[in-house]
Amino acid sequence: MMNSNIVNHLTLKPVGHYPGLGAIFDVYIDGVCFLSTIAKFEQRFHERLNGAYTAALGCKDIMQSLTTSGSRFMPYACDCGEWQCWVFQGVVSGYDNYFYWGDWRNVHRDNKSKATDGLYWNYKEFPTLCFDKSQYLAEITKARAIIVNDKASQQILGRS
């Protein structure tokens, strides 16, 4: 369960590579794997997930999206090797001394007209996360150091 405090603690753990995303990181919020929080929330829509999420926070998200207010990022994608198959996304916002993650969605369950078929999943009640800017940026900096030394990521970023 996530911390009930107002400010969350972000940890990014390197977990290998994903085709087209380079080095990827799993997200931990307040010491808990973020995927477990998502899975628990999504059980209200379906007893089992229709897709199998895997860590997918890739080099472009780490190097660009996570520090650009208004950017959409993808912490989890399908484990089949085609990340577009099943995607969980959020939006980054930065204000004063904080970064926020919110505006969550699964792009394959985003069509309100399919609600009567059970195919619209409303993430309005999924928590917005708040991070202290200095802790957040320190964690991003550690992940960026891994990406800078990763050949596959550098190719994806067009730097090799």
Q: If you had to describe this structure to a student in words, what would you say it looks like?
A:
The chain is α+β, with helices and mostly antiparallel strands and 160 residues long. Helices cover 22% and strands 31% of the residues. It has four helices and eight strands, in the order βββαβαββββαα. Strands 4-5-6-7-8 form a five-stranded antiparallel beta sheet.
Q: Which key phrases capture this entry?
A:
160 residues, alpha+beta, three-stranded antiparallel beta sheet, 4 helices, globular
Number of helices: 4
Shape estimate: globular
Helix % is 10-25%
Could you tell me the number of beta strands? 8
Radius of gyration: 16 Å
User: On the 0-100 scale, what is the average pLDDT?
Assistant: 89
Class from secondary-structure proportions:
alpha+beta
**How would you characterize the largest beta sheet?**
5 strands, antiparallel
Percent in strands = 25-35%
Strand order of the largest sheet: 4-5-6-7-8
Cα(first) to Cα(last) distance is 41 Å
- SSE run: EEEHEHEEEEHH
Which spans have pLDDT < 50 for at least 5 consecutive residues?
A: none
Strand-helix topology:
Blueprint: E1 10-18, E2 22-29, E3 32-33, H1 34-42, E4 53-55, H2 59-63, E5 72-78, E6 88-95, E7 98-106, E8 129-132, H3 133-148, H4 151-156
Task: Write a compact overview of the structure shown.
The chain is α+β, with helices and mostly antiparallel strands and 160 residues long.
